[in-house]
Design goal:
The structure is a single chain. The chain has 387 residues and is of the alpha/beta class. The chain has 2 domains: 236 residues, Type I PLP-dependent aspartate aminotransferase-like (Major domain) (Aspartate Aminotransferase, domain 2), CATH 3.40.640; 127 residues, Alpha-Beta Complex (Aspartate Aminotransferase, domain 1). Helix content is 39%, strand content 11%. The protein has a 7-stranded mixed sheet with strand order 1-9-8-5-4-2-3, sandwiched between helices. α1 runs antiparallel to α9, α2 runs parallel beside α9 and α3 runs parallel beside α4. The protein is globular. The model has no long low-confidence stretch (mean pLDDT 96). Bound molecules: pyridoxal-5'-phosphate. The site of pyridoxal-5'-phosphate (PLP) has 14 residues, from α3 and α4. GO terms for molecular function: pyridoxal phosphate binding; transaminase activity. This is Pyridoxal phosphate-dependent aminotransferase.
Length: 387
């Protein structure tokens, strides 16, 4: 058995990043400033966005995006139940109601026809999540959004480096279209905590710049830097969602490494797919039928609980006994007291999400994993699944 515990994720932060963090601290400019501006510029260039606005988390970015769209009390936003709580929380904190539309158990993404069925007079936006790094079928989703005059906020927390039909997630997709990335330590790149909102929409970009900084029409960097002006106005209240230069210093070192990180992720996934192909008790992910590039934020097979005769939680416990960390992404949101209560949904409401929720498990996947780590995971899975 493996001697040391293998976590399901661990960030790779270079010495260069650590030195740049120290440089920020020594410089006296700790909050948003030149390093954040540089990170935004390079990020926008990488994904192909007109605007990339750094914030202190994807949760904050989703909240800003919905608020900038004017979404609030009495409105509905259609999203997937197979996501992290942040997606629904961002909707709820605008005063709007999340409406869950069921997913496809193979792509794990929201199904466009189910979005169409969930549209009401109150619907203002759709929030698809590119689950694990499989881009949603955006052409279909945008056709529905166009037909009903809805905004689209892509929760792209998992999808940095992913492509849909040859274009990166985050690339410009027109007015009232936004995408939001996360730099939480488990994500494809990290800034400790952090997020980025990308859009082509100039009006929304300007609103988000103000929303992230208490509604102030000019950032601290502009007000206090040598050439900036101290004047600003406030047109509406904002929050404090800015990224700091300490975070951006990490991001500036991470971004050039992203393609290498994602290649390594893809190689580990290819190994898992090969080695676990014939293991009874494990159901492997299937590729989405539309043209795409996966970003492999997480690797999420299903535990075949019907065949094995024990639960996914038991699988997780048995992996832990073998010193292998796993994670649960996710329990379907409508099965949590909070969101079940708000939506009136419970078991039986969203059968596909529930099927997935009962079986899904995230195996270790991070760029610094060595081949031996991946072998240890496969060995442990085979032992746990031995019938
Ligand atoms: C799908 C999804 N949306 C939103 C978030 C929130 O990201 P953050 O932790 O940066 O706020 C996460 C983070 O895990 C996520 O996985």
């Amino acid at each position: 058995m493996r001697k040391e515990f293998l976590p399901f994720a661990r960030p790779s932060v270079s010495e260069e990043a650590i030195a740049d963090v120290a440089d920020s601290i020594r410089s006296g400019w700790l909050t948003m400033g030149p390093k954040t501006i540089l990170f935004e510029k390079n990020f926008a260039g990488y994904v192909g966005a007109s605007y990339a606005l750094a914030v202190n988390s994807a949760t904050a970015g989703l909240h800003c995006a919905l608020t900038a769209l004017g979404i609030g009390a009495g409105d509905e936003v259609i999203t997937t139940p197979m996501t992290f709580a942040a997606t629904a929380n961002a909707i709820l904190f605008t005063g709007a109601k999340p409406v869950f539309a069921d997913i496809d158990r193979e792509t794990l993404d929201i199904v466009p026809e189910n979005i169409e069925r969930a549209v009401t007079k109150k619907t203002k936006a759709v929030m698809p999540v590119h689950f694990a790094g499989t881009p949603c079928d955006m052409d279909e989703i945008e056709a529905i959004a166009d037909a009903h005059g809805l905004a689209v906020v892509e929760d792209a927390a998992h999808a940095l480096g992913a492509e849909y039909k040859g274009r990166r997630i985050g690339a410009d997709r027109g007015a009232r279209r936004l995408s939001v990335f996360s730099f939480h330590p488990t994500k494809n790149i990290t800034t400790g905590e952090g997020g980025m909102v990308c859009t082509q929409d100039e009006d929304l970009a300007e609103k988000i710049m103000m929303l992230r900084q208490n509604g102030m029409s000019r950032g601290a960097w502009n007000r206090y830097a040598a050439k900036g002006s101290a004047n600003y106005d406030i047109f509406f209240p904002g929050l404090k969602y800015t990224m700091t230069d300490i975070q951006a210093a990490i991001g500036n070192s991470q971004l050039p490494e992203l393609e290498n990180f994602n290649r390594r992720r893809a190689r580990i996934v290819a190994f898992y797919m090969r080695e676990l192909a014939d293991v009874p008790g494990i159901i492997l992910p299937k590729p989405a039928p539309w043209a795409h590039k996966h970003s492999w934020h997480i690797f999420t097979p299903f535990v075949d609980i019907d065949l094995l005769g024990f639960s996914r939680d038991e699988f997780i416990a048995r992996m832990k006994e073998r010193n292998i960390g796993t994670a649960l992404h996710y329990q379907a949101l409508h099965l949590f007291s909070c969101y079940g209560g708000i939506t009136g949904m419970g078991r039986g409401s969203l059968p596909e999400a529930e099927y997935v929720s009962d079986r899904i498990v995230s195996l270790p996947l991070f760029p610094a994993m060595i081949d031996e780590d991946a072998h240890d995971v496969v060995r442990a899975v085979k032992e746990v699944c031995r019938l």
